[in-house]
Design a protein that fits this description.
By secondary structure, the chain is of the alpha+beta class. It is built from ten helices and 15 strands. The protein starts with a helix and ends with a helix. 28% of the residues are buried.
């Protein structure tokens, strides 16, 4: 009997599935769609039939120590949100509008509460925004604007409180990525990087292999890089452009502000893209040879995450200008500072000031250099 009990315990400890037993009210004999979150997108796992009584069941593969965010949809409506751990046996009752109750998964219950608070805040702010658009005078619009700001600040504070109190819960992760539209993330302050890092540190002690924790760590590092860069910029003498300091192929730190030429081109590129690598030889090298003695130089920033690829191209092409690499790629704080939306991207600094001139091809760059280096 003791042996049987031990075997049962061991089997439970090794299980890599979570079970869902659900009831869909008001839609018997329908279908529900089970989806899993893959960091920032949904992946459909299966379509599950609902029997005439409204019951359905499903088992989800969940690795030990790597909980999964799983969602149940009825048509296009999300009707249940779950955070499942290996071995969970969840009982949920929901309807076609997403009014849901859950048992057997404390983390799922917390996730539902998180989403409810977010949806309520989103609705309040949407209603106030609508009233602002319909306001008859500036005074009324200004008052509504203050209400909107108050709602945002209150919700932000509640979110900060939540992630601090639940720093070891994966339900904190989606809170960090909430937004009130593409241009208004809930965590929009530069100092929020501290909250991102603290929670990432905590979660890594519990779920070191979780893809969700790794995504949070990546964002924490990106935000902290921006925060540290802003601090360094604030501590130095004012310049007409954000400074850059990165290592070249020899590992030597090279600062953009140390460039002494009159006109310096900041060039963001990727060595992994053949067309951009050839641009160095076909376009930049001839321009460099023509204008370098007149005061032109290049500070080339590779955004390759694989430094080996970049180093090999730089070595083969033997480019005479400064070549550095930021292996953070698109997460580099310099991408944000210089508003680089796509590669390649370039700016010209002339006598210490960014030049207001668009560089789209060889002709535009040549014309700009002729104008500056008379």
């Amino acid at each position: 009997m003791i042996v049987s009990a031990a075997v049962a315990v061991m089997a439970a400890a090794c299980t890599t599935v979570a079970g869902i037993d659900g009831t869909l009210e008001s839609a018997p004999s329908a279908e529900v769609i089970v989806k899993q979150l893959d960091v920032n997108r949904y992946v459909v796992l299966d379509t599950v039939a609902v029997d005439p009584s409204g019951a359905f069941s499903y088992k989800v593969e969940v690795e030990k120590g790597q909980p999964e965010f799983v969602y149940v949809f009825y048509k296009d409506t999300k009707i249940a949100s779950l955070l499942l751990e290996a071995g969970d046996k969840v009982r949920l009752v929901t309807d076609t509008l997403g009014n849901c109750s859950i048992e057997g998964s404390p983390e799922s219950v917390k996730l539902v509460a998180v989403e409810k608070a977010y949806n309520e805040a989103l609705l309040k702010m949407s209603l106030i925004s609508g009233e602002i658009e319909q306001a008859q005078d500036e005074k009324a619009a200004a008052e509504l604007g203050r209400q909107l700001s108050k709602e945002y600040v209150n919700y932000y504070r509640n979110c900060v409180k939540y992630v601090m109190e639940n720093s070891f819960s994966l339900t904190s992760v989606p809170v960090f990525f909430q937004n009130f539209g593409a241009s208004l993330p809930v965590f929009s302050q530069s100092t929020d990087a501290i909250h991102f890092r603290n929670v990432a540190d905590s979660l890594e002690t519990v779920y070191p292999d979780s893809k969700y924790v790794k995504a949070l760590r990546k964002e924490a590092d990106r935000r902290f890089g921006i925060l540290e860069l802003a601090g360094r910029i604030a501590a130095v003498e004012p310049v007409g452009y954000p400074d850059i300091e990165l290592a070249d192929r020899a590992g030597q730190k090279r600062k953009l502000s140390d460039m002494e030429s009159q006109a310096v081109m900041i060039y963001f590129w990727s060595a992994a893209v053949p067309a951009q690598a050839m641009f160095n030889l076909d376009t930049l090298k001839p321009l460099y040879d023509e204008f370098h003695k007149k005061g032109f130089d290049i500070y080339a920033v590779s955004l390759d995450t694989d430094k080996t690829v970049w180093a090999q191209v730089v070595k083969e092409q033997n480019m005479p200008w400064v070549n550095v690499c930021d292996s953070r790629g698109a997460a580099s704080p310099y991408v944000t500072l210089y508003n680089i939306g796509a590669l390649p991207g370039a700016y010209i600094i002339n006598n210490g000031e960014l030049v207001d001139g668009e560089i789209v091809d060889e002709a535009s760059l040549r014309n700009l250099l002729k104008k500056l280096l008379k």
